[in-house]
Amino acid sequence: MSDGKEAPAFTWPVRVYYEDTDAGGIVYYANYLKFCERARTEWLRSLGIDQDVWLDLQIGFVVRQVSLDLRAPARFNDALRVTVEPKRIRKVSLECTQQIFNQQGELLCVAEVKAACVNLSTMKPVAIPGPILEVIRRGS
């Protein structure tokens, strides 16, 4: 349940490289977190949120909590789709559900991610700046 209007799910393509896999050619579990991070970054970029500007102002998002439900393996050279769907938007945090699918549409991984907005100088929580909050809630 969201505190405001939820943005539609965003999708970002990711290719599995050899470096993402273990000796058996299966994606190493920690790399699903990297795929999710890339998709969240591109989602913010698609909304017009220029993270460089906010970083210069010492404002950033840090992952506070994450859970992964690994349902099926991804393999070397697979083309994946990673989604981002905001679920709960609060004053200082954002919760998203992310899903990773293979080319056949099989759900491989579900991630629940909670990110907090912080002042990067103090690493203390701060309110998500109004312009960011507005764009995330609007979803465009």
In short:
The protein contains three helices and six strands, in the order βααβββββα.
Describe it.
Keywords: Hydrolase. Pfam families: 4HBT_2. InterPro entries: 4-hydroxybenzoyl-CoA_TE (IPR050563), HotDog_dom_sf (IPR029069), Tol-Pal_acyl-CoA_thioesterase (IPR014166), YbgC/YbaW (IPR006684). Belongs to the 4-hydroxybenzoyl-CoA thioesterase family. GO terms for molecular function: fatty acyl-CoA hydrolase activity. This protein is of the alpha+beta class. It has a single domain, classed as Thiol Ester Dehydrase, Chain A (Roll), CATH 3.10.129.10. The chain is 22% helix and 38% strand. The protein is built from three helices and six strands. It has helices spanning 31-46, 51-56, 130-138; strands spanning 10-15, 59-70, 79-89, 93-101, 107-119, 124-125. Strand 5 (107-119) and strand 6 form a beta hairpin. The two termini are 20 Å apart.
State the assembly state of the protein chains: single chain
Percent of residues in beta strands?
Answer: 35-45%
CATH architecture: Roll
| Rg, Å, rounded | 16 Å
Number of strands: 6
CATH first level: Alpha Beta
Percent of residues in helices comes to: 10-25%
Count of individual helical segments: 3
User: What would the CATH topology be?
Assistant: Thiol Ester Dehydrase, Chain A
Pfam families: 4HBT_2 (PF13279)
Keywords: Hydrolase
GO molecular function: fatty acyl-CoA hydrolase activity
InterPro entries: 4-hydroxybenzoyl-CoA_TE, HotDog_dom_sf, Tol-Pal_acyl-CoA_thioesterase, YbgC/YbaW
